[in-house]
């Protein structure tokens, strides 16, 4: 119940939101920096000379028609897909192209997938347990023990994502919207510096969407001794984007078509054309 | 094939351990029940064997004791396979190789124990080497006259093979059907190699004519009973170890790797290392099973490397039910009992029966016998008082 009180005090930093110690260096610039990135699949250029800069503490929305390359961009940042050319930097110290998925994850980049992927055979509590920031090597994982402190953190997140009464049910039984929330909860457990959130509100009710918007805006820019959290959201739902957006980037055919405030972007003739052409 | 057999894990309120990982299994009701049944059955057979004279209707013959001991070794092998197949989704069709390597390590010790009691009476060389006109022991036979060394090799030989093989396979993210196929290739290649006389493992005939183990005569009833009890204890210890792993956080990470490998990586876990660790443990357990098996059947030959044998093991596990561990034990015992009975009546039909059994189980009992049992005794997860209050 502490948490409810905590949530009421919006100006404070919640314990669960404090990023774990991360060596990322953002003193001289952005937290994420993509330069001239290209990748093609069987000759098809999914990402084409993409340039993108995310500032420390920023909340950035990325929109774009289907197939614009939004998910592929996240695949590149998280090490799942290797680009053909270009460079990707996390802060000014870490070249993400030289790291694999677990290394990038431990560095503090968390990801929510477009298709919600939770561990369906495990309970909701266990899903959060596995996501929790901790020593993830094999032997420490084997000998890891649950304690009061960890339990409290999981309970905290359970309350935030509204799944506390289902904590011992298998994640497989959750609705689509609840799985989205569970995945967001797993992100919170990871305490990342940078959150990549792919279509978080698909399958959510209006009310759930509002709560998501509130949570994401609160997460972005949260200061702590270790730094601030930055959030990148990919979303199709324009209403949702309008409700949270500060800066919007429009992707089209693998590169940036427009960037700026929501109003500026949505009045851009190029953007209007792309979206009208798509039938939106 | 692995997709056809959906696996399951009962959600439970106290699944998340706050105890030492090795202590966790002892607090689980199902594990306690399993150990009680296993150790009770071993004790009962021993008592019936010892207390009643031959010819008495309740007497359990030495033949039966040894047969049961053999089944227990198979059960341990099945548990090892279930650990990686059920919980990690790695379908090894070559686990017989690790079983056979453990068996050969034991067999080499038993050969050296024969000393000058062989047919040729050579105190330094096993009979088959004398027969091949070899004049000295190959380097890799050295040390096997010492029990501690041989017993260490029982786990190390399969463990090291699994380490090298798994390192190469998992690092390059070979999984699914491809992994199954290369495990088949592995055991097949080893079988061909061990068939060759030049390899120095007795070729076609393998290793046999064992006399004694740690000074105990292998033909005596007491030794045979001891081996049976030892097999039961090995199964119990192996089972507890596997339970400890699957109910630890690493076990939950394994299930995560099995169901959503990419997601697990993005949480920061090194999937390939988790796979390697559990694979090596599983191979070592298979080696121990092989080591208890060999003195009871009295021979180890390259036939144990046969790809068919490894496939049979997978059928035991599928029949018993994946991802339960006790299902693997039930499957191994039932199928092998059926095999004993069946091959007595119609030896040629056994493979067809096994194949039919596998198809029937996959279609009608996708979760095996254990799944059937769970359905009957399923307790619905009741919300606890704590949950209701929240
Ligand atoms: N692994 C792959 N192999 C081949 N083509 C791919 C691969 N991944 C993505 N693509 C193609 O690249 C293009 C960009 O895909 P991407 O998933 O990044 O789009 P998106 O912007 O996320 O679209 P959506 O809004 O539908 O999620 C698509 O045309 C897709 O078909
Ligand atoms: Mg997408």
Automatic annotation (TrEMBL), chain A:
Domain of life: Bacteria
Domain spans labelled ABC transporter: 32-278
Molecular function per GO: ATP binding; ATP hydrolysis activity
Pfam families tied to this protein: ABC_tran, BCA_ABC_TP_C
Alphabetical keyword list: ATP-binding, Nucleotide-binding, Transport
Keyword ATP-binding attributed: yes
GO cellular component, one term: plasma membrane
Name of the protein in question: Urea ABC transporter ATP-binding protein UrtD
Origin species: Terasakiispira papahanaumokuakeensis
From TrEMBL, chain B:
Transmembrane segments: 34-52, 58-77, 84-106, 146-170, 177-195, 222-242, 274-294, 314-337, 349-369
Record keywords, A-Z: Cell membrane, Membrane, Transmembrane, Transmembrane helix
Localization terms from the record: Cell inner membrane
Any one cellular-component term (Gene Ontology): plasma membrane
Topology in the lipid bilayer: Multi-pass membrane protein
Annotated InterPro entries: ABC_transp_permease (IPR001851), ABC_transptr_urea_perm_UrtC (IPR017778), LivM-like (IPR043428)
Record's keyword annotation contains Isomerase: no
A GO MF label: branched-chain amino acid transmembrane transporter activity
Keyword Metal-binding: no
Pfam families: BPD_transp_2
PANTHER family, alphabetized: HIGH-AFFINITY BRANCHED-CHAIN AMINO ACID TRANSPORT SYSTEM PERMEASE (PTHR30482), SLR1201 PROTEIN (PTHR30482:SF4)
Protein's name in the database: Urea ABC transporter permease subunit UrtC
Organism: Terasakiispira papahanaumokuakeensis
């Amino acid at each position: 119940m502490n948490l409810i009180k905590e949530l009421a005090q919006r100006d404070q930093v919640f314990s669960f939101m404090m990023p774990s110690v991360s060596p990322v260096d953002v003193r001289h610039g952005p937290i994420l920096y993509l330069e001239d990135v290209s990748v093609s699949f069987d000759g098809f250029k999914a990402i084409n000379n993409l340039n993108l800069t995310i500032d420390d503490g920023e909340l950035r929305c990325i929109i774009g028609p289907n197939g614009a390359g939004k998910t592929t961009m996240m695949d590149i940042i998280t090490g799942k897909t290797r680009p053909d050319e270009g460079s990707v930097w996390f802060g000014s110290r870490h070249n993400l192209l030289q790291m694999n998925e677990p290394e990038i994850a431990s560095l503090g980049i968390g990801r929510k997938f477009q298709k919600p992927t939770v561990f369906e055979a495990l309970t909701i509590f266990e899903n959060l347990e596995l996501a929790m920031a901790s020593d993830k090597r094999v032997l420490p994982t084997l000998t890891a023990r649950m304690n009061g402190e960890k339990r409290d953190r999981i309970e905290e997140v359970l309350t935030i994502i509204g799944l506390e009464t289902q904590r011992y049910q298998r994640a497989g039984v959750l609705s689509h919207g609840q799985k989205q929330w569970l995945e967001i909860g797993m992100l919170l457990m990871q305490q990342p510096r940078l959150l990549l959130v792919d279509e978080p509100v698909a399958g959510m009710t209006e009310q759930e969407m509002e709560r998501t918007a509130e949570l994401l805006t609160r997460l972005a820019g949260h200061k702590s001794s270790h730094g601030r959290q930055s959030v990148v959201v990919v979303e199709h739902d324009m209403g949702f984007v309008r409700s949270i957006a500060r800066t919007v980037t429009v992707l089209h055919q693998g590169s940036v078509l427009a960037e700026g405030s929501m109003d500026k972007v949505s009045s851009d003739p190029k953007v209007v054309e792309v979206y009208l052409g798509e039938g939106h | 094939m692995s997709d056809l057999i959906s696996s399951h894990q009962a959600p439970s309120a106290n699944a998340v351990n706050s105890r030492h990982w090795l202590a966790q299994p002892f607090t689980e009701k199902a594990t306690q029940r399993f150990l009680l049944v296993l150790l009770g059955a071993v004790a009962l057979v021993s008592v019936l064997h010892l207390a009643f004279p031959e010819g008495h209707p309740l007497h359990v013959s030495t033949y039966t004791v040894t047969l049961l001991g053999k089944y227990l070794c198979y059960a341990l092998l099945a548990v090892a396979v279930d650990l990686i197949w059920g919980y990690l989704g790695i379908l090894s069709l070559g686990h017989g190789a690790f079983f056979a390597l453990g068996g050969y390590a034991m067999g080499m010790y038993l050969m050296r124990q024969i000393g000058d009691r062989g047919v040729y009476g050579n105190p330094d060389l096993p009979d088959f080497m004398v027969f091949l006109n070899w004049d000295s022991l190959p380097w890799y036979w050295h040390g096997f006259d010492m029990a501690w060394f041989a017993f260490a090799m029982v786990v190390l030989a399969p463990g090291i093979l699994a380490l090298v093989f798994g390192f190469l396979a998992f690092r390059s993210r070979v999984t699914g059907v491809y992994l199954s196929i290369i495990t088949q290739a592995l055991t097949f290649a080893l079988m061909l190699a061990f068939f060759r006389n030049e390899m120095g493992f007795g070729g076609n005939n393998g290793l046999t004519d064992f006399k004694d183990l740690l000074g105990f005569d292998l033909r005596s009833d007491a030794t045979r009973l001891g081996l049976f009890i030892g097999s039961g204890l090995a199964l119990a210890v192996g089972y507890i170890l596997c339970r400890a792993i699957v109910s630890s956080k690493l076990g939950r990470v394994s299930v995560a790797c099995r169901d959503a490998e990419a997601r697990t990586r993005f949480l920061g876990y090194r999937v390939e290392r988790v796979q390697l660790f559990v694979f090596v443990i599983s191979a070592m357990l298979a080696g121990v099973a092989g080591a208890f098996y060999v003195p009871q059947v009295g021979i180890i030959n390259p036939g144990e490397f046969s790809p068919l044998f490894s496939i049979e093991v997978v059928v035991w596990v599928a029949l018993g039910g994946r991802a339960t561990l006790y299902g693997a034990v039930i499957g191994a015992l039932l199928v092998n009992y059926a095999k004993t009975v069946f091959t007595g009546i119609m030896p040629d039909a056994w493979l067809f029966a096994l194949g039919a059994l596998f198809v029937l189980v996959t279609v009608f009992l996708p979760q095996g016998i254990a799944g059937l049992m769970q359905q009957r005794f399923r307790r619905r997860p009741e919300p606890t008082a704590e949950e209701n209050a929240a």
